[in-house]
Amino acid sequence: MKKSFGKWLRHQRNEKKMSQRSLASDADINWTYLSKVENSVPGFSSLSEKTLKNMAKSLKADPDEMITRAGKIPSDVQQALVDDFSLVKEIRARKKVTRRRKKKDPKGSTGGSQ
Question: Are 65 and 78 found together in one domain?
Fold first, then answer.
């Protein structure tokens, strides 16, 4: 089962021994909002790309991973997809290959990280 963005974010913050208030301040959001994001409260999961990048910087995390785990597509990637539709087809083809590999290896050891 996939970990929610909120749980993943809390884990990242706790690994860095950072308080919600400190991370929220770095990200320029209210700490109570961050608490609701971490607890997956409905209606409190939408963070701007700028906020997500600020969080990634503060946590020394990959901004693309932060944005993607939040369920968004980084704006430069989104623009690349708009500019070159063949990339969409490549992604779909890769997804099919990945699905086939998972069927062959039900344990899911595809070599990727979490």
Answer: no
